[in-house]
Design goal:
Length: 200
Amino acid sequence: MYSPLASGSKEQHKIIILTAPSGAGKTSITHHLLKKIPQLAFSISAATREARAGEVNGRDYYFISVDEFTKKIKANEFIEWEMVYEGKYYGTLKSELHRLWKKNQYPLLDIDVKGAIHVQEQYPEESLSVFIEPPSVKELRRRLISRGSESEESLQTRLNKAEYELSFINHFNKVVVNDDLEEACAETEALVRKFLGIPL
Ligand code: 5GP
């Protein structure tokens, strides 16, 4: 469910991909990286789900309808896209990566495991993929429950998905275990700095 960029040299184009099962702390690590490394910029995905309270269109996501999303798939506008949850589509637009590269920034992609694999396949040299691993599925359950936003059914769906996603762990360049968030942030930051050649 992806297609290569139609044109353009990829040499100077680096990409950082952060992926993880839901609840592994990926969002916190994304925020940490964006704060500490100003050369990084959040790659805003297109998504068909409803915006949550506090989310802003064009900042958190480009919220679009399923119809618009389907048109963009047909027009080959995505690097990758996935139906991450039942009926909910998410995708990385080629135009988004170009927008950031043009500003001399490195896109930071916070995307699901399959999307991450697809981007990596297209940019094997230019991308660094980091998989954030929760200490255990038991701990993941505890974190998702403490977040308080899950019904029993959606909790089970997320846990099943997490176990499935954990089976792809060997596909990524680096794995960071998040049993201590501060350490996981520091470790990921060091990996990204090294890859981009940006010292502390
Ligand atoms: P949420 O709905 O909680 O914002 O995101 C759900 C999941 O979709 C997260 O794991 C997030 O990383 C993933 N996601 C966000 N944007 C994209 C994207 O462009 N492509 C893919 N494949 N997954 C995405």
